[in-house]
Amino acid sequence: MHAFHPPGRLRPRAGPLGAVALALSLAAVLPSARAASGSALPTAGRRLAGTDGALLRSLSSAPALLRRAARPGDGLAPNDSLPRPGWWNGACDGGPSGAYPGSMPNGAVFDGLPSCGPGPNQGGADHLVRFFAGAWGEFEWECVELSMRWMYQAWGVPPYGANGNSVVANYPMGAPGYPALDRIANGTVGHAPQPGDVISVDNPSQFGHTEVIAFSSVSSSGNGWLKAITENWAPGSTGWVSLSVSHWVVSDNIPGDEVVGWLHDPGWSLQAPVIWDVTPGGDLQVKDTGGLAGPAVTVANGIASASVVGGEGHEPAPLVAALTTGGSLIAGYLLPGTPLRPVASGVSSFSISSGDGWTGQPVLAWTTSSGALEVAAGNLRGAPVTLVRSGVRQVVVAAHSGTADALVGILTGTDRFEVAEGNLHQPLTWSTVARSASAIGLAGGGDSPMLAVEAYLSGSSLYERQGTTQPFTRLAAGVRQFSVAAVGPAALPLVARVSGTGVLTASLGSQPPVLVSGGVASVSAAAGPTDMGFPMLTFLDTAGRLWARQGTLSWPLVEEAPTAASGGGSDITFS
Prior knowledge:
This protein is 4% helix and 39% strand. The chain is mainly β. The chain contains two helices and 39 strands. It has two domains: 19-264, Alpha-Beta Complex (endopeptidase fold (from Nostoc punctiforme)); 270-574, 6 Propeller (Neuraminidase). It is elongated and about 75 Å long. Strand 29 and strand 30 (473-476) form a beta hairpin. Mean pLDDT is 81; it is low at 1-77. The relative contact order is 0.10.
């Protein structure tokens, strides 16, 4: 069954107006609102508010309690970025003086957004609340309440009049106080709902349904699946709903239902962690649950080493590359029913990276046992591009944009650290970064490749710089192993290092180093390229346990695997 709004109970606005007057004044209050039936949705990428500056995205006229999603350094955990709503009394507003006494969480939670109940379809009844004085009223616990609560807390969108099937169509285009959103029609080629997007579903009930997308795994050909969070779905529902995507058409697979379209906020993004480890027995396990908690899935066996990175724009599914115990390199996307494919044999080292933005494509580079450097760019299934290099013993890649552009760093047999940037299908020009290095690190350049983060070890001294023309800074001595990442559009350097005595410290930009842990064997640093690109650290301790942290560098650690031979972490940043 679907959530609905009983006839005659369209959300009222605060004030002395009666229900009839409210219905008549809807066009005046929301001049851009329109009914879902018979309305044509704009094509993908078209903004609801123009770029002429008429709409203030800062919401300067909105109440002070409006907030956007968490930003790095604001003290909020990224996977619980929304606080409890200020108008609630107790969990799900079910406290003694709450608007809905006796209500409780259904179980589903997305980015701090809980699904609550019971709704009318679960044996409950509607209870009117207002998010702030003068706000359009919402009914706890209808499906629209959850979508409006999400848009208000995460995007700064004040509530507006709509049923489930008209949440998308009724968005107040260009109205003061409403941020610019994209409205995307279902079936638009090249666009699938992303986490955080709000969808509308039409059905014979005349009220329809609305949901917030929580997980998305859709291939570049427009096929895959989605998971959404909602309220008032059916008796016993936890609040989770599964949807399928076929050739860019989204469906909840219920006869009579039609997904109309969805709202997307280009100014909001979500970084979901991906944790992986290789067990002592050679099993590659990946944890891709949308948070640091949850079970791991075995992806491959007979693995000596591996790397898993977020897919970013070209393909949101994580990318996996692994070196088998026999020296074969296998790679592919982490998609149900999609096995990893052989790429090359006789491989001694490798590195994988995804591209940024919708045009970004993955880059997989490796060195052979003879020291030759080879690279595959694009879908990881085409013939590799053999670069005219030899005598290479380590490679690192950090794709930043475009379909074939990448940042590539190599450590030669003569200890030289060299970097090239450009189209991998054309000859590259290499620049010497350092003439005496024992290990190298490279991270993408945010909005510009000129902001790339480069680091290397010379002896036990760690050197780092941001920007290809800046001088290197000697960060620390006595370093055994390190990892670097670039945080956010400005590519703020995240540098994690393990001392010879196993002490792990990390620093973000110019902030003082933070002591993370002792007894550490190795560390991996990661971050997203957008404003929500929270720092992420994973490390293997000397007892073989894998730990992770996402958020500010002082947030608690989470044990990910009790026994591992190696491991690390990455992220998927949806935006």
